[in-house]
Amino acid sequence: MELLYKSTRGNQTKVTASEAILQGLAQDGGLFVPERIPRLSLSMEQMKGMSYQEIAYEVMRLFLTDFTEEELKDCIAKAYDDKFDTETIAPLAKVDDAFFLELFHGATIAFKDMALSILPHFMTTAAKKNQIRDEIVILTATSGDTGKAALAGFADVPGTKIIVFYPKDGVSPIQEKQMVTQKGDNTMVVGIHGNFDDAQSGVKAIFGDKELEVQLKESGFRFSSANSINIGRLVPQIVYYVYACVKLLENGELKPGEQMNVVVPTGNFGNILAAYYAKLAGTPIGRLVCASNDNKVLYDFFQTGEYDRNRPFILTTSPSMDILISSNLERLLYLTAGEDAAKDVELMEALTKNGKYRITENMKERLKDFCGYYATEEEAAAVIAGTYKDTGYVMDTHTAVAACAYKKYVSDTKDKTKTVIASTASPYKFTRSVMDAIDAAKYGELSDFELVDELSELSGIKVPKAIEEIRTAPVRHKTVCEVQDMKKTVLAFLGVE
Ligand SMILES: *Cc1c(COP(=O)(O)O)cnc(C)c1O
């Protein structure tokens, strides 16, 4: 059955999945949501034995109904291949009594790879389906993780170019090296003299420049976004929750019909929303624990029903969760308001105007499946150190926030439901913070790459290719520009005068 997408703000005609992927954001400023959440047509039992790619197809065909079987299978095969360092794509590691769903085995060793490996293929397929002949130019501002994952995804994909802006002095040495060594003639990486907000505002200004849009169109280009509000990023993230459940059933950890809980380290609310969509589609998920770091705006929201971003922005060792406006929460609000677009608009306007809003008691009641927990910097570090000492398992700083939230949840509720913790980055991506958590006195003096070797020795896990490669890779991107010259830089790269 065909599934169309509508806007959470209610003022856009319904579009097909491929159109929603090409547009990214709806024209009325809302987010695209499916007009209904489709139900999985196979039971968990029936999916036993299926590969990641096969389950991906089962899930995606329900959400992306205007893609043909051949198109979807082709996208899946190109995305989930030997870029991943394990055939299982998203392995589960049992540590103590919890299951860590490792989503970091892709090209850039963070969970963004799960969606950004396939998004470029969705986009080029969608462009073809909609008779768009323009070359697609992806523009991204990044504070580190998304930029590299998007670069890796789009590199050498025919019909696309990608330009990433990052704050020259605002990313870690490993993150910078990962980006400036990116291969692919269709890629460009630019450091800007400014912070992440400057980069983000600059990109938004370019997107909003109507004159530029016309000028580019004449030269055969159109902009698009690889941002996490694109449904082309949300849908692939549903897959691994279904997959985790099937695998737990397969190895006897779950009995048929038994539910599992999930704990997700959350920033923009994309990953945990995907888990909720998986639940609504029929995956036996019980509670969804939303884990925050010191920027605990979501924790407060689930406690009180009030979302309030008026607070200091705290820099933590889990930077991908340092966020005060969780864009994807809008999709959950829309659902809990009974798909009431007017209510959604009211709340989003309040957020823009006052930086806060409060949901109704009725809506709060509908959020019962969720609960929020948070971890301070000390608590997260203690979980990394403690788990390593007790089990030998080393986790990254974001996963540690989730593991800590899980401990607090169990201690509060005594809930014994089997639990999957979304493990969103390899410890190698945040080596300095991870090693400091384990033994600051011992490792404090070493360089980032020396720490990589120490981590390998201590964890017994081979240094991932993503890190090994950048040690010696030549720097290919040296462009640095002022914020006001971002547009000029884009035009020069595209060869447009
Ligand atoms: C992006 C990211 C998150 C947050 O995910 P959301 O979908 O934005 O909630 C958590 N951990 C890591 C390592 C990330 O890169």
SSE inventory with pairings:
Layout: E1 5-7, H1 17-23, E2 32-34, H2 44-47, H3 52-63, H4 69-79, E3 92-95, E4 98-102, H5 112-116, H6 119-129, E5 135-141, H7 145-154, E6 160-167, H8 173-180, E7 187-193, H9 196-207, H10 210-218, E8 221-224, H11 231-250, E9 260-265, H12 270-280, E10 285-292, H13 297-304, E11 306-308, H14 329-336, H15 341-354, E12 356-358, H16 361-365, E13 370-374, H17 377-391, H18 397-413, E14 418-423, H19 431-443, H20 448-459, H21 465-472, E15 480-482, H22 486-494
Parallel strand pairs: 4-14, 5-6, 5-8, 6-7, 7-15, 9-10, 9-14, 10-13
Antiparallel strand pairs: 1-2, 3-4, 11-12
The structure holds pyridoxal-5'-phosphate (PLP).
3D architecture notes:
- The protein has a domain at 92-109 and 232-470: Rossmann fold (3-Layer(aba) Sandwich), CATH 3.40.50.1100.
- The chain contains 22 helices and 15 strands.
- The chain has helices at residues 17-23, 44-47, 52-63, 69-79, 112-116, 119-129, 145-154, 173-180, 196-207, 210-218, 231-250, 270-280, 297-304, 329-336, 341-354, 361-365, 377-391, 397-413, 431-443, 448-459, 465-472, 486-494, and strands at residues 5-7, 32-34, 92-95, 98-102, 135-141, 160-167, 187-193, 221-224, 260-265, 285-292, 306-308, 356-358, 370-374, 418-423, 480-482.
- The strands form 4 sheets. The chain has a 6-stranded mixed β-sheet, sandwiched between helices. A 5-stranded parallel β-sheet has the order 8-5-6-7-15, with helices on both faces. Strands 1-2 form a two-stranded antiparallel ribbon.
- Strand 6 (160-167), helix 8 (173-180) and strand 7 form a beta-alpha-beta unit.
- The chain is globular.
- The relative contact order is 0.13.
- The model has no long low-confidence stretch (mean pLDDT 94).
- Bound molecules: pyridoxal-5'-phosphate.
- Pyridoxal-5'-phosphate (PLP) binds at residues 110-112, 145, 228, 265-271, 320-321, 398, 424-425.
